[in-house]
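Design a sequence for this backbone.
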């Protein structure tokens, strides 16, 4: 199986949104790559796809999905996979990522990233489905840890142990969302740094950073604010372990001026430079 990974991809990128895509195309800001949501571009034509193709001529592009439902028990949606493969080929996507979760039960789609129990049975199930998807797409994919708001009493593995073993069994790569790890630690007490230290460095190919909302008794993964200081501190530890892992700034709700997001990009790049001995990233 081919990796279909553009290993030259490095530095910090941003998630594309309709409100900033024209500015990205016209101003060509100093970013290294962009991420596009798979489910917003699975069409034959239209402005969103046209803009994505224009961006692709200026920056490498990755595809990030929400709908593979790898932890679900319903049969994989081959029609969905056909469209993902066609889009990835059309824009020469650097890689494709999705989440470690289930999102559907029967014909009901939750529109939420529902957590799996971390058990041997879940490992067998999701590893098998990842293998099927990778075989169909002809490439390895990246899987991301979701923010968690509940846990299962019968889980027998930590999140880090589950992710590491899943990557080994499925021969896939990992996308570490540092913000999600911090949220999970706050909400459930699962150590974020323990998760980071459990992941094999050779499997982590991307890092996500984002903001959260603080509610009465929990944190919500909202992607509508700057990265918090505790998450930045955790990110530094992650970069020490996963040196050179490309980093994405996710800002998807209440999207501000592009200049605000670019400040987050520059901070991530400064951290990477410092940790990696001032190697050139931008």
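Sequence:
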């Amino acid at each position: 199986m081919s990796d279909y990974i553009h290993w030259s991809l490095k530095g910090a990128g941003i998630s594309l949104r309709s409100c900033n895509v024209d500015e990205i195309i016209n101003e060509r800001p100093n970013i290294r790559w962009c991420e596009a949501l798979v489910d917003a571009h699975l069409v034959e034509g239209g402005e969103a796809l046209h803009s994505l193709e224009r961006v692709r001529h200026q920056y490498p592009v990755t595809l990030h999905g929400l709908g593979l439902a790898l932890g679900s028990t319903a049969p994989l949606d081959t029609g969905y996979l056909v469209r993902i493969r066609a889009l990835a080929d059309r824009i020469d996507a650097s890689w494709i990522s999705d989440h470690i979760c289930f999102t559907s039960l029967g014909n009901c789609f939750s529109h939420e990233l529902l957590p799996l129990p971390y058990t041997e049975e879940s490992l067998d199930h999701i590893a098998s489905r990842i293998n099927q998807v990778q075989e169909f797409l002809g490439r390895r994919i990246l899987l991301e840890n979701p923010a968690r708001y509940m846990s299962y009493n019968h889980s027998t593995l930590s999140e880090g142990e589950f992710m590491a073993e899943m990557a080994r069994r499925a021969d896939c790569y990992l996308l570490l969302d540092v913000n999600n790890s911090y949220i999970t630690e706050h909400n459930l007490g699962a150590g974020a740094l323990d998760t980071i230290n459990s992941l094999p460095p050779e499997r982590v190919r991307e890092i996500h950073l984002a903001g959260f909302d603080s509610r009465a008794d929990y944190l919500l993964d909202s992607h509508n604010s700057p990265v918090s200081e505790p998450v930045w501190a955790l990110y530094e530890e992650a970069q020490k372990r996963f040196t050179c892992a490309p980093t994405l700034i996710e800002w998807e709700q209440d999207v501000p001026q592009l200049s605000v997001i670019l400040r987050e990009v520059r901070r991530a790049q400064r951290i990477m430079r410092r940790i990696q001995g001032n190697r050139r990233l931008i």
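DSSP finds nine helices and twelve strands in the chain.
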